[in-house]
Amino acid sequence: MSKHVPLPKAVQVAVFHRDLWLCRWCKRPVIFAPVMKYLKRELGESGVVGPQPAYYHAHWTREGAPLLDELGAVIDHVEAVAKGGLNDLDNLATACNKCNARKSDAAQHEVMKKLKPKPIKGKYGEPQNWDGLSSLFVMLARRAPATLTDTERNWLIALTAECQ
Ligand SMILES: [Zn+2]
């Protein structure tokens, strides 16, 4: 995920969909992070008692959001921006948060680039219809449009434009 050049949400969604919401490097299914915030809120409003489960934390901490710490979906630059990598689709890849963190180590990055694409053959085939729970986000976001932040509204627009 580039911290220097903000990518339009529509571009990020296009990359996630192209990559079938699977990490380019480890092939694990990734999770669209905003949905976890909504699931946490739904649960809070449902009257289920007990400690708040660790569904969402703004910084994807292991303590507060272990699923996102591992599998939160981010956009990776295959060739780093600092090394002249571009923001075009060919240089962008879906990554899980763990691989993205590993890739920020320059030496690891060189190793990982040579590994791609890492084939993992599921016994019954690769998932074709995983969506990172993004459809669930669309459903929950449409339920409470007045509560959306600007960022969430932009995600909703990008995701629903892609679906059509
Ligand atoms: Zn990964």
Q: Tell me the distance between the termini.
A: 26 Å
Name the hetero compounds present. Answer: zinc ion
* Range of strand content: 5-15%
Question: What is the domain total for the residues?
Answer: 1
Topology pattern, helix = H, strand = E: HHHEEHHHH
Count the E strands. Answer: 2
Any low-confidence stretches, pLDDT <50, length ≥5? none
- Mean pLDDT over the residues: 87
Main β sheet profile: 2 strands, antiparallel
- Determine the structural class based on helices, strands and strand pairing: mainly alpha
DSSP helical segment count: 7
Morphology call: globular
Instruction: Give Rg in angstroms.
Output: 16 Å
Helix content: 40-55%
- The strand order across the widest sheet is 1-2
What would you say this structure looks like, in words?
There is one protein chain. This protein has 164 residues and is mostly helical. The chain has helices at residues 9-18, 33-45, 66-71, 97-103, 106-115, 134-143, 150-163; strands spanning 73-77, 92-96. Helix 1 packs across helix 7 (150-163) and helix 2 packs across helix 6 (134-143). The longest helix is centred in the C-terminal third of the chain and has 14 residues, at 150-163. It is globular, with a radius of gyration of 16 Å. The mean pLDDT is 87. The chain binds zinc ion. Zinc ion (ZN) is lined by residues 23, 25-26, 28, 95-96, 98-99.
Quick description:
By secondary structure, the chain is mainly alpha-helical. The protein contains seven helices and two strands.
